[in-house]
């Protein structure tokens, strides 16, 4: 179908070359901003989904590669479109094996009413079919949404007081310094300015004269005029050489160095002590409540500190340091002596986590049982030894069943007295899984009076 | 397709272009040259200049989101699409296409770096030649789109919207964009013939002109009663309607021109959405042909490369494997349909046309007297690619053999009956029925919902009246219709009434009414 004239035109156009471009080095993530806007728009829904998903999972796994699903109405894009609800329509399908004309087929169970699958050609494109929308959130996004309005109490004040590390930070320029701190760009700029200002001859000038001299020298004998020129050129050459030697390429006055000063950096290490009563009176369910709480605290701390260590201490009559698995799953029985755990915690802290270099957090979970002879000792240990070195001490008391309103336990009573005098000891009671998050939020919700203080 | 032997000119044989899987830029260039020779000499393809860009799979996800356009303005809906693709991809539900090609001049094809050398060659044949030829030659694209200007226009649109966000705030811009996006399917001119966009002029439209238009007299701004008190209805009314261009099927156009409460920049944003929607308007109407064309071209070219000794057997096996994956049409029991895989149907029909041209059966001679045995498969296909859209192509060329090969059958779904009736299968009596029904599903009238603005109450509360002509049982999805009308109210600023009317009887089936908040 190509006509003659067209063919000529075609030929000409075929000569246009192809461009092959490697775009791989181009910036990626053109859609990061669009993606952020999606999160923004569905914020409420995503936040709820995030918090739901935290109710599952291991402490250390939280916030890693989290997928959440949100109901799609938050992001629904409505359009005008027809749906088939009644009447007749014709549908052509492929892959017929046994049907012949006039066969009657059972109507397939339609999803959500007759004809909701959409008519031919509009194959259920949009029509309430999308019921949820799945996100994979980065860890930061996840935690940002999760801890939206929470803050560590007294964080700033305490951080500065426990400052230990210093890091170098840029602070202008200086005339002297280590060669590795040389600011080459600035130095060369000054060098050029000085060379121009003092009229340092260019290497090219010298080369030109050298060439001319070589040319004249090669062409002997010379007439008088040329001899004179040779003399002149030689003279000029020696002058240029002198000048070049006198005016250096880079002079010490050109040098500029980047200056660093040491600025104190708040310590970004934290250790979190999880202390749990594992005596016979603690049921699996109560331990699970405690776990939820530890988990939240850990994730929360991890967002604020570069490095978070966790120490698991369990206790019954005596305390021991264990790993996470044992901590949560290995049952033990026996009576309860809380002070044993506090002593162990204090010992570990002194030995491995000196309070100068570490931010120290303690979370203790218990059902409130304690040997009555021990309560006094526990209280004094807490007040005199532990509270002065820790950032925050959270005590949660879990009860067996949410419905029972309990009286105050001895442990609770003595902690409460201490808490009244110490802002960074917080005590709460938790009876049910769904209370964990509210309690946590309650403990860490942003307190403006603190921030201003 | 094996029947087709190049007619006159034939590409020259040569040594292997590459071996193994690895590619480099020289290999790509050599493949391109070899492919171009075949496309030129044997197929006579006519293309826009090609630009081939190598990208990573992450970049490919970006490209997906924006219809393949390299730049777009910022909006959360693109982010939503991106997240959808991304999560499907990461979960392994979706492989990325090997290529994306866009209708622009130069024609940009994206190749993924993960592809093997064979796949790169295949993709070049598919996109840079097959799609490119289709974009350049198909009537719909020629009449409706201006590929030399689209990239510049998108650049302008992005800049404009970014400036609006700076000046008026992201929320204010989003409010307009959300509403305009909801209406973008009703934001195109469909029936007004060839109205090719002049996108360059669009960009250069001086802002003053816009302001001038705004300051001009507009009936909607009139606060005084009509100047002819006696003639409240009748001729004066219809004259006003005519002046407003009613009835109007392009809702965004009407709003851009006439919505009383919009600021100039808001009108411009509506216009941008409208222009982009108009640019993409032809694509769904030729999707099947476009993919069929590209697949047929790549299958032909790769076969010829193999015959000419330019690629080895292993590479050709990879081509066959990949092509047959692409053109797989699962039967209804395996979840296929009711819509066809456009690659499968397009490729099958085009292969069949080529067969009919070269080696027709008696049946073909009866059905296709014009082309059967004409000995010019490539020319016949080129003609079809240029002059048809999916609906007319099927109506014209869907042959009994293809219907048999796919084992198509037609179900009649009558909601008053408890069963579905098989009323046509792949036999002599059923071919035409099936063909008509398949063509109908590709009719733009079927997949676009046409809604018209028919009236606006100028003397009263400025309520806008819309009509959707349909029939009982085929009305708008009510929840979505309601939400979309909310968006319409956002732009219009006053109440809106949408009547759904039975196009046969003229009776009103339902009425949706939305009043402005407050």
TrEMBL record, chain B:
InterPro entries: Spore_V_R (IPR007390), SpoVR-like_C (IPR057008), SpoVR_N (IPR056174), Ycgb-like (IPR057270). Residues 22-443 form the SpoVR protein-like N-terminal domain. It comes from Gluconacetobacter johannae. PANTHER family: STAGE V SPORULATION PROTEIN R (PTHR30029). The lineage of its organism: Bacteria, Pseudomonadati, Pseudomonadota, Alphaproteobacteria, Acetobacterales. It holds the Pfam family SpoVR. This is SpoVR family protein. Residues 450-502 form the SpoVR-like C-terminal domain. It comes from the Bacteria.
């Amino acid at each position: 179908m190509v006509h003659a004239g067209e063919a000529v035109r075609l030929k000409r156009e075929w000569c246009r070359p192809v461009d092959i471009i490697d775009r791989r080095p181009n910036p990626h993530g053109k859609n990061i901003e669009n993606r952020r806007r999606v999160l923004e728009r569905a914020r409420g829904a995503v936040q709820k989904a995030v918090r739901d998903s935290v109710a599952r999972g291991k402490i250390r796994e939280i916030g890693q590669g989290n997928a959440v699903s949100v109901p799609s109405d938050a992001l629904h894009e409505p359009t005008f479109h027809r749906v088939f609800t009644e009447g007749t329509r014709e549908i052509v399908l492929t892959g017929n094996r046994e049907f012949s004309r006039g066969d009657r087929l059972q109507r397939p169970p339609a999803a959500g009413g007759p004809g909701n699958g959409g008519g031919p050609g509009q194959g259920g494109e949009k029509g309430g079919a999308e019921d949820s929308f799945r996100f994979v959130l980065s860890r930061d996004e996840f935690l940002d949404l999760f801890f939206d309005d929470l803050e560590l109490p007294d964080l700033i004040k305490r951080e500065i007081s426990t400052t230990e590390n210093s890091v170098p930070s840029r602070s202008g320029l200086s005339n002297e310094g280590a060669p590795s701190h040389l600011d080459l760009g600035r130095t060369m700029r000054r060098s050029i300015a000085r060379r121009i200002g003092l009229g340092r001859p260019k290497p090219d000038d010298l080369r030109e004269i050298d060439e001319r001299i070589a040319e004249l020298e090669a062409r002997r004998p010379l007439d008088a005029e040329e001899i004179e020129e040779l003399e002149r050129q030689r003279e000029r050459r020696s002058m240029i050489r002198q000048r070049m030697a006198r005016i250096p390429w880079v002079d010490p006055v050109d040098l500029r160095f980047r200056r660093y000063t040491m600025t104190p950096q708040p310590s970004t290490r934290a250790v979190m002590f999880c202390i749990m009563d594992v005596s016979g009176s603690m049921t699996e369910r109560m331990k699970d409540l405690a776990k939820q709480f530890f988990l939240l605290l850990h994730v929360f701390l991890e967002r604020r500190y570069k490095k978070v260590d966790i120490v698991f201490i369990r206790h019954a009559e005596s305390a021991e340091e264990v790993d996470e698995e044992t901590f949560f799953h290995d049952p033990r029985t026996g009576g309860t002596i809380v002070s044993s755990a506090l002593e162990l915690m204090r010992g570990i802290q002194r030995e491995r986590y000196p309070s100068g270099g570490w931010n120290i957090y303690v979370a203790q979970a218990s059902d409130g049982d304690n040997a009555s002879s021990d309560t006094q000792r526990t209280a004094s240990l807490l007040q005199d030894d532990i509270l002065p070195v820790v950032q925050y001490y959270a005590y949660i008391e879990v009860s067996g069943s949410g419905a029972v309103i309990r009286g105050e336990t001895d442990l609770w009573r003595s902690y409460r007295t201490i808490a009244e005098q110490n802002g960074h000891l917080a005590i709460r009671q938790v009876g049910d899984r769904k209370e964990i998050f509210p309690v946590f939020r309650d403990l860490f919700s942003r307190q403006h009076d603190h921030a201003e203080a | 397709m094996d029947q087709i032997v190049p007619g006159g000119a034939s590409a020259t044989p040569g040594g292997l272009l590459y071996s193994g899987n690895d590619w480099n830029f020289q290999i790509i260039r050599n493949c391109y040259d070899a492919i171009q020779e075949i496309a030129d000499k044997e197929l006579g393809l006519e293309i826009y200049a090609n630009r081939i860009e190598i990208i990573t799979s992450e970049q490919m996800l970006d490209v997906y989101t924006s219809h393949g356009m390299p730049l777009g303005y910022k909006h959360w809906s693109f982010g939503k699409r991106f997240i959808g693709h991304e999560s499907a991809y990461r979960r392994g539900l979706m492989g990325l296409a090997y290529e994306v090609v866009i209708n622009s001049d130069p024609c940009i094809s994206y190749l993924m770096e993960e592809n093997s050398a064979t796949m790169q060659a295949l993709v070049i044949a598919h996109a840079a030649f097959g799609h490119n030829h289709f974009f350049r030659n198909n009537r719909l694209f020629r009449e409706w789109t201006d590929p030399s200007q689209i990239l510049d226009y998108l650049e302008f649109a992005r800049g404009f919207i970014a400036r609006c966000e700076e000046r008026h705030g992201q929320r204010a811009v989003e409010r307009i964009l959300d509403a305009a996006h909801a209406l973008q399917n009703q934001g195109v001119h469909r029936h007004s013939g060839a109205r090719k966009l002049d996108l360059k002029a669009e960009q250069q439209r001086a802002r003053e002109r816009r302001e001038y238009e705004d300051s001009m007299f507009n009936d909607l701004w009139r606060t005084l009663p009509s100047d002819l008190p006696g003639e409240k209805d009748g001729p004066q009314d219809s004259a006003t309607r005519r002046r407003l261009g009613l009835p109007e099927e392009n809702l965004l156009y009407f709003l851009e021109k006439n919505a009383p409460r919009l600021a100039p920049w808001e009108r411009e944003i509506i216009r941008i959405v409208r222009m982009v929607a108009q640019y993409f308007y032809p694509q769904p109407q030729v999707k099947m042909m476009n993919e069929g064309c590209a697949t047929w071209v790549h299958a032909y070219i790769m076969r010829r490369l193999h015959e000419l000794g330019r690629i080895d057997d292993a590479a050709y096996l990879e081509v066959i494997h990949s092509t047959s994956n692409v053109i797989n049409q699962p039967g209804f029991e395996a979840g296929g349909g009711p819509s066809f895989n456009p690659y499968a149907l397009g490729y099958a029909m085009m292969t069949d046309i080529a067969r009919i041209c070269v080696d027709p059966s008696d049946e073909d001679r009866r059905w296709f007297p014009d082309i059967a045995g004409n000995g010019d498969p490539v020319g016949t296909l080129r003609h079809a690619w240029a002059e048809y859209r999916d609906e007319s192509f099927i109506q014209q060329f869907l042959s009994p053999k293809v219907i048999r090969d796919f084992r198509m059958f037609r179900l009649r779904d009558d909601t008053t009956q408890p069963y579905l009736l098989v009323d046509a299968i792949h036999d002599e009596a059923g071919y035409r029925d099936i063909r008509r029904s398949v063509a109908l599903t590709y009719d733009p009238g079927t997949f676009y919902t046409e809604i018209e603005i028919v009236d606006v109450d100028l003397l009263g509360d400025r309520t806008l009246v819309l009509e959707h002509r349909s029939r009982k049982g085929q009305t708008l999805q009510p929840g979505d219709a309601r939400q979309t009308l909310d968006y319409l109210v956002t732009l219009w600023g006053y109440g809106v009434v949408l009547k759904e009317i039975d196009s046969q009887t003229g009776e009103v089936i339902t009425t949706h009414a939305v009043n402005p908040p407050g």
